[in-house]
Amino acid sequence: MTQLDRVALERVIAVINGKGGVLKTFLTANLSGFFAANGYRVLVVDLDQQGSLARDYGVRDDDDYDHGKALAAALMVQAALTNARKSVRENIDLIPGGRHLSGVSGYLMTKTPEQAILSLAQALEPFAGEYDVVLLDGPPGDQAIQNAALGAARWAIIPTKSDATSLDGLEQVNDRFEQVLPYNASIDLLGVVLTDVDSSAKAIKRKAIRQIHDMFGSDEPLFKSVIRHASAVVQTARDVGKLVLELERDANDGPQWWEIRRGEASSDTYIPSSVTGLAGDIHSLASEIVERLAAGESEEDGS
User: CA separation (Å) from 240 to 29, 56, 59, 198, 244?
Assistant: First the structure.
């Protein structure tokens, strides 16, 4: 068995679901923003060949953006990742994803299960301990890279919408756990978070909660915080390359909607009024994550 310093990886969190479109990347970026604003030093690793995290941070067009080249080399030939980090905000470093990751999954499938599952863990181990939190944005539908994310992580967060296919993706992650456990016995579920929740769809929300309860045998894995439906904010944030907390600051500092409507002021970017509610949801979730991390680490220290 490959020897790893799991202490260095104890704050690595995989944000993962077997299905796309559940706000996984959006949550990863915006949780990093709230952690960083509270003084946490954060590393974010984009494991998706779409490289969408770069859009959320507004750095996709930067000259030094490598579209996942360094990360792909680390996963396939154990090249060092130490110098691949890109500062995208104060207290936030990004290891970019992108098109160069397209061949990684096929390559990992030619290796032994241990080599494939621990490929990312080996790449992160030398410097993960420099950070208070490491967030891994796992790609949907890519078994090999999802397994590598779980092989490196101490914790997993599963965002899911309330529809059946998103919940099926949650079950797929459970299957991934079974495959990874022989090589990473420390991996555990930090929680499941309901996303894109319409406040008027109460019956649908109750049904989803029941399904999650049946899947895990209790409501304990489910975060109390939910992420509301706010597609206009999500799209605006990505279009301008800003995090929700930054958009909220812009909205507070900028002209009021009625000033714009009267022609008394102008705004280059319209910021939907729902930005404050969505920012509150993410802040609440970030606080719950910190509480669960502290509880889990306290339990480990006491055992």
Answer: 14, 8, 10, 24, 11
- Please write the tens of the pLDDT for every residue from 100-149: 999 999 999 999 999 999 999 999 999 999 999 999 999 988 899 999 99
Which tokens in the block code for residue 13?
């969190």
> Could you tell me the residue ranges of all domains in the chain?
12-230
Both tokens of 96, joined, read 């970019």
Closest CA to 186 of 71, 25, 14: 14
pLDDT band of 263, cuts 50, 70, 90: low
User: Which residues fall within 8 angstroms of residue 128, CB to CB, at 6 or more apart?
Assistant: 8, 9, 11, 12, 43, 134
Distance CA 183, CA 151 (A): 7
Place of tokens 């241990």: 114
Q: What is the Cα–Cα distance from 182 to 117, expressed in whole angstroms?
A: 10
Residue for token digits 């936030």? 92
User: What does the pLDDT look like over 151-189, one tens digit per residue?
Assistant: 999 999 999 988 878 888 778 888 889 999 999 999 999
Looking at domain 12-230, what is its CATH homologous superfamily? P-loop containing nucleotide triphosphate hydrolases (3.40.50.300)
DSSP H or E stretch at residue 286 = helix 275-302
Note the pLDDT tens digit of each residue in 3-33: 888 999 999 999 998 888 899 999 999 999 9
* Placement of tokens 């030619």 in the chain: 110
